[in-house]
Amino acid sequence: MSTKTGIPRDPETGTPDAPDAGSDLGTAGSQLSTAPKEDIGLPSLGPLGWARWFWRQLTSMRVALLLLFLLSIGAIPGSLIPQTGIDPVKVEQFKAEHDTLGAVYDKLGMFHVYSSVWFSAIYLLLFISLIGCIVPRSWQFVGQLRGRPPAAPRRLTRLPAYTTWRTEAEPEAVLEAAQRMLKKRRFRAHRTGTAVAAEKGYLREVGNLVFHVALIVMLVAFAVGSLWKSEGGKLITEGDGFANSLVQYDDFTSGPFFDTDTMEPFGFTLKRFEATYERTGPQKGTPRVFRAHITYFNGADGKEHKTAIEVNTPLDIAGNKVYLLSHGYSPVVTVKDGRGKVVYHGAVPFLPQDPKNFTSTGVVKVPGAQTKDGKRNQLGFNGLFVPTFGGKNSGSMFSQFPALDFPVLAVNAWHGDLGVDSGLPQNVYQLDTKRMKQYKDAKGNIFKKMLMPKDRLERQAAQHTGIKGGLTKKDVEDDSTMRLPDGQGSITFEGIRSWASFKISHQSGNELALTGAVFALAGLAGSLFIQRRRVWVRAERGADGVTVVEMAGLGRSESPRLPDELGDLAVALVPDAPPAPDAEPADETADVSRETASAQRPQDPTEPTDSADPADPSEGARA
Amino acid sequence: MTLAAAANETLAHNSNLLVYSAITVYTLAFLAHMVEWVFGSRSKVGRTAAALTAEAKAPAISVTVAQKGGGTAVLERPTVVTKTAAGSRDVPDGPGAHGGTEKGDLYGRIAISLTVLAWALHVGGVLTRALSVQRAPWGNMYEFSTTFAAVAVTFYLVLLVLKKNIRWIGLPLVFTVLLDLGLAVSVLYTASDQLVPALHSYWLWIHVSCAIICGAAFYVGFVATLLYLFRDRHEAKLADPAGEQPGKFATSVLERLPSAASLDKLAYRINATVFPLWTFTIIAGAIWAEAAWGRYWGWDPKEVWSFITWVAYACYLHARATAGWKGRKAAVLGLIAFACYLFNYYGVNIFVTGLHSYAGV
Ligand code: HEM
């Protein structure tokens, strides 16, 4: 466990109250990192003093910590409360259900947490703090790179790792050898008096700075992405196409800087939508394949190409991406009016009400219909479509399976004024029946019918010609058509096509975000796995004329690898400073150490010491 | 085709059998660990107090440099003396659950052997499941949970093989694994099957496997952090003989754990090592999201909680670098961070609906 006394364990934080901050160890351990010093003192008077105090607070580690913590707490509500950016329908539902709470949430921006004022304030403050932290740290680090490792402390014995021995070699020769040896091992080493001071692991600091800068880069990329993005949705039935212009979208949103006048000319046609589902087993009905077979062109008069879009493989075209979002069925219907004239023929997209088995609803609006005697009589049909009919005798109709095994379309009919001429935008999936009347039969029951697709019935009839009980042409006609009372028209269920909905998005800044992410990762690895450490070698002639070699190491954190490394360095130095044969204990500490070492040597295997760790990955980590 | 399907069904069935067998053997391992702790409670350790109240502090650990060749008359191997920082407690690690008793140790070893056996069955179960569906075994919560537990045990066994001081975690680990597997086979069970199209991507291999590895490692870090808090309080009480002294039971249990400093260091090393991997997990998820949904970040609940977890761990790492926040406060942040990870897995999957689809919850 670490405590408040920062020396020598964490000299970098330089706690002002560290008791021996003034000792020579303080300098030796200084600037082993560029972490800012904590400063809790109150400011001196004056606005400038306050401003400086405020800035120092903002860029302190403590406030960075606080802001980080706030950021994580602030992100929570957005995951629990419905968000307009993700599901606006749910937000409306929530507001309807919770009157007061909804209003309070609205005030607090809880329905768009990640673009709310307070959330933005947190991360902007955090990033200001980050910049305020990075810039001085970078300068300081450059200074450290230019400077030299600090001179050896007076008493090396006080450092976390220490070793000593006596040698016949001359001190001067030992020091020269030590400097050579350390430099060979990529330490930055220089002579200070009777000692060599060396340091290694600067990449740790580089990593840390790179990581924090990369965070800023990612934020910028995020901003660029949302300022210049555009995103739109389009539902397309098989056989239909799309060309990239504003009017063609079902819905479209774009960032403030996106220019809708210069949209790239491209387009595509949905040829066929392929969907397969699990047929057996407990997961019956689970989708297996969704594939939109399309042809596309790029450029105003480009050539057509064939390809397929799947859920995880969007189409990448002219800086845009086309994603497959969802799919459903579009019954094809023909409507004739009282005059017997075809007033509507086409595929009508139905929206799935049950995402699993695709019980879907939709409407057919026929504004151009007239009565037998030529009066305006707009027609509207409410439809319920099931790809695989179920609930035969239950009175209700639902789908049992998402594929087209037994498609049935149930319709009822309205007439009157559709309200489409009012100029107000209308929901194409809903019938506005305010000024319409529903057709009833003679008994006053709602006029409705279940229809089978004509194309399938015809195929069936063709297969069974001549067989007794096979379908006649009239049967086919009857089963696929609903005739309105008094000869006011009819609706025929011709067949089914699939529709698929696509998201077409244009996003900038992706590469920048990825670059930032990669650098963040690399920087992080460097910062966490590289240990910055200092080593000092002192060689002085002892009282008896024999040279005493002392080596000591200091890491940013109490690392188990440091003693090992120091040992290795010592072994490497031994050929140039062979231990004196009549080695008397050099001093008391060495004596003690040797005793404890031998006492502990047959180590208890259940109690492995840290140093036995062969691969401690985070040795640069602070303790 | 039907033949292959039948073969797959047999495999899936075998997978279930293996998982159930693993649960049985883990239960035995759990009991053996209990016995280990019971025997261990008979030892009189009391080393911590002795160390804390000892007058003169000798250097804590001495490390000898690796020997080169045979010994000669000449001193060839300098001894490196290490010093703990001033102000920190100089406490040796506890002996482990067995408390130094021979019988306890025996049962502890039996427990580990059983754990190895259970682990083999468990991994077999995960692999046959993967073979039966011919894809990565983490397409739904059942698979995620079983794989998660397998990875956690693997992580523990690897640390044991590397001779890390980790044996003390046996009981809580096996307990958690039992809990996790029990939930998996009862509540979360999903019959083996193919993936929904949204999960058809090689990013599933990369992103989810990383998430699982992170979770398993974070879990070990979490246990170490939690026990650190207990052990630290215990040591603090002992260090102040005038104040309140720990109870008998607490003493018996806590004395056998590694020292607070060791637990803290272990937790930090694990969390710090896994943090970059967690960062990568999120980045990989973002790349996948870009391919699947058209945006690399959309504040989907799962994304939000990954982010919260990430920021919480960043908080923890920052706290360690900030004077006055080290030790207990940082440890609490570490606990919170792991809670976020857990919530992201169970909470978000069960209580919050989002784009992340797992079949069969
Ligand atoms: C955007 C949010 C931030 C995140 C996600 C973040 C993340 C991290 C992480 C994971 C580390 C650990 C690396 C290590 O221990 O070497 C770290 C270290 C550090 N961070 Fe941040 N950081 C953020 C903001 C800040 C800010 C605002 C400051 C300045 C006030 C700051 C200053 C530092 C310092 C000084 C260290 C290194 C401490 C040391 O030298 O050991 N960070 N940061």
From TrEMBL, chain A:
Keywords carried by this UniProt record: Cytochrome c-type biogenesis, Membrane, Transmembrane, Transmembrane helix
Subcellular location: Membrane
Chain residue ranges for the region called Disordered: 1-38, 570-623
Primary location recorded for the protein, binned into one broad class: membrane
Polar residues compositional bias, start-end: 595-609
Membrane topology summary: Multi-pass membrane protein
Gene Ontology BP terms: cytochrome complex assembly
One Gene Ontology CC term in the entry: membrane
Source species, domain of life: Bacteria
Stretches that traverse the bilayer: 63-81, 117-136, 209-228
Residue ranges annotated for the ResB-like domain, each copy included: 61-566
Protein name, entry field: Cytochrome C biogenesis protein
Organism: Streptomyces chattanoogensis
TrEMBL record, chain B:
Pfam families recorded: Cytochrom_C_asm
Residue span, Cytochrome c assembly protein domain: 138-356
GO molecular function, one term: heme binding
GO biological process: cytochrome complex assembly
Keywords from the named record: Cytochrome c-type biogenesis, Membrane, Transmembrane, Transmembrane helix
Lineage of origin: Bacteria, Bacillati, Actinomycetota, Actinomycetes, Kitasatosporales
Subcellular localization, as worded in the UniProt entry: Membrane
Stated name of the protein: Cytochrome C biogenesis protein
InterPro entries, per the entry: Cyt_c_assembly, Cyt_c_biogenesis_CcsA, Cyt_c_biogenesis_CcsA/CcmC
Transmembrane parts of this sequence: 17-39, 110-132, 144-162, 169-190, 202-230, 266-289, 304-323, 330-348
Gene Ontology annotations for the cellular component aspect, listed alphabetically: plasma membrane
